[in-house]
Specification:
By secondary structure, the protein is of the alpha/beta class. The protein has two domains: 271 residues, Spore Coat Polysaccharide Biosynthesis Protein SpsA, Chain A; 84 residues, no CATH class. Helix content is 32%, strand content 24%. The chain contains twelve helices and 17 strands. The protein has a five-stranded mixed barrel. A four-stranded mixed beta sheet has the order 12-14-16-17, with no helix packed on it. Strands 5-11 form a two-stranded antiparallel sheet. Strand 7 and strand 8 form a beta hairpin. Helix 3 packs across helix 8 and helix 8 packs antiparallel against helix 9. The protein is globular and about 60 Å long. Keywords: GTP-binding, Nucleotide-binding, Nucleotidyltransferase, Transferase.
C-alpha cells in the first residue's frame, strides 16, 4: 500500500512577520493567491494516493490549526510529534504509525514537505510515481534531486555517478551528500554536471527504511516497533516516553549519508525550497521594475523589491525610491530588510523572543 508522509512541523521563522507560531508558512498562501502551501501539497499528490493514506507529521502546537484548515483530511491523519526532534525521529514515527495501521512488508512511503514550490504538478506526479515504482521493487532508499539552475549556497547537494542504475527508471546511484557550499564550490558543482540539489523528498518501502535505521541509526530504528505497539494500544504516555528518548538528528546525517543503497531520480519539474522572502522573486510575477507586490501597495521609483501588505484593515503601504528591499506589513508588526539579508530574518525573531515579545511571534 502507498502512503504519503508530509512533514509540516516547521516554524517558518524566515517568513516573519506573516509567518507566526500558530500560522507558519505552510498555512500561508505564499505560492498561490488562493491556497495555502499545505493545501497545494495535498492537492498535488492526492491523484496518486487516497486522502486516507496521506499523513501529516507536525507539532502539538500546529495539530489543531492544521485539522481546522484541512477538514477533508481525517483528523487521525494529522499526527503530532510528542517532542521536538529532527527528521529521523519524525520518519521513524511515520513508520510506526503505518505499521500500526497496516502491517505489511509491501507498504511504501513517499516523504514530502509542505513548503516547497512545485511548478508543474503533472510532471511532479510522474516523477513521484517513477520513484515509488522503483522503491516498491527494490531494497532502495530513493531521493528526488533537483537539476541546479544556479550556484545556490542555501541548499545541500547530491553527487551522482551519472549512469542509470536501472533500465526501468532514470535512477542513478548517489555517491555523496554535500553540505551547503560556499559560492565558489557551488559554482564548481553546477559546472561539473555531477550534482543535484537535495530536495528533501524521499521514497522507500517502510521496511527498507526501518532496516536502514536499525543498521545506521539503531537508537532510532530499534524504537519503531515499540512505538508501533504503543500506537496500536493507544498508550500515549508510553509513546511519548519512547519518542522523547530519541536523538535529535536528521535523516540525511543519520542514515542517507551512510547507507549503500541510496539512489536519486532527477526532477523534471520547476522547484523551489521557499526558504525566505527572496524566494518570491522566483515564484511570483514581477512588474517591469522587477518588484513583487501583494495587498494594498503603491510603489514609485522602486525596483528589485518585495512589498507585502497583509494588514487586514484600511492600511496602504507605499514604497518610494527603494532598491533590493523586502517590506512586510501585518497588523502586529512591520519587517524591513535588504533582500540579501532575507535569510537572517530568523535572527530578528530570536531577538524578539529573547526580549519577551512573544505576542508578535
Amino acid at each position: 500500500m502507498r502512503y504519503v508522509v508530509i512533514m509540516a512541523g516547521g516554524s517558518g521563522e524566515r517568513f516573519w512577520p506573516l509567518s507566526r507560531m500558530q500560522r507558519p508558512k505552510q498555512l500561508l498562501s505564499l505560492t498561490s493567491p488562493k491556497y495555502t502551501m499545505l493545501e497545494e501539497a495535498i492537492a498535488r499528490i492526492e491523484p496518486l494516493v487516497p486522502i486516507e493514506n496521506i499523513l501529516i507529521i507536525t507539532s502539538e502546537l500546529l495539530r489543531q490549526p492544521i485539522i481546522d484548515a484541512m477538514p477533508e483530511l481525517p483528523a487521525a491523519n494529522v499526527i503530532a510529534e510528542p517532542a521536538k526532534r529532527n527528521t529521523a525521529s519524525c520518519l521513524a514515527l511515520a513508520c510506526a504509525v503505518i505499521d500500526a495501521r497496516t502491517p505489511d512488508s509491501s507498504n511504501v512511503m513517499a516523504v514530502l514537505t509542505a513548503d516547497h514550490f512545485i511548478g508543474d504538478a503533472d510532471a511532479f506526479r510522474h516523477d513521484v510515481n517513477e520513484a515509488l515504482n522503483y522503491a516498491e521493487r527494490h531494497d532502495a532508499l530513493v531521493t528526488m534531486g533537483i537539476p541546479p539552475t544556479r550556484p545556490e549556497t542555501g541548499y545541500g547537494y547530491i553527487q551522482i555517478d551519472g549512469h542509470h542504475a536501472s533500465p526501468e527508471a532514470p535512477v542513478s546511484k548517489v555517491l555523496l551528500f554535500k553540505e551547503k557550499p560556499d559560492f565558489a564550490t557551488a559554482t564548481s558543482y553546477v559546472l561539473s554536471g555531477d550534482y543535484l540539489w537535495n530536495s528533501g523528498m524521499f521514497f522507500w518501502r517502510v521496511d527498507a527504511l526501518a532496516d536502514a535505521m536499525k543498521r545506521h541509526l539503531p537508537a532510532v530504528g530499534n524504537a519503531i516497533e515499540p512505538m508501533a505497539k504503543a500506537i496500536a494500544n493507544r498508550a500515549t504516555d508510553e509513546l511519548s516516553a519512547i519518542f522523547g528518548a530519541l536523538p535529535d538528528i536528521s535523516i540525511d546525517h543519520g542514515v542517507m549519508e551512510h547507507a549503500g543503497n541510496v539512489y536519486v531520480i532527477p526532477a523534471s519539474f520547476p522547484w523551489d525550497d521557499v526558504g525566505s522572502w527572496d524566494a518570491l522573486d522566483r515564484m511570483r510575477g514581477c512588474d517591469s521594475e522587477n518588484n513583487v507586490t501583494q495587498g494594498d501597495v503603491v510603489v514609485l521609483d522602486t525596483k528589485n523589491s518585495i512589498v507585502v501588505n497583509a494588514h487586514d484593515g484600511r492600511h496602504v503601504v507605499t514604497a518610494l525610491g527603494l532598491d533590493d528591499l523586502v517590506v512586510v506589513v501585518t497588523n502586529e508588526a512591520t519587517m524591513i530588510c535588504h533582500k540579501s539579508r532575507a535569510q537572517d530574518v530568523k535572527k530578528v525573531v530570536a531577538t524578539l523572543r529573547s526580549g519577551g515579545a512573544s505576542d508578535v511571534l
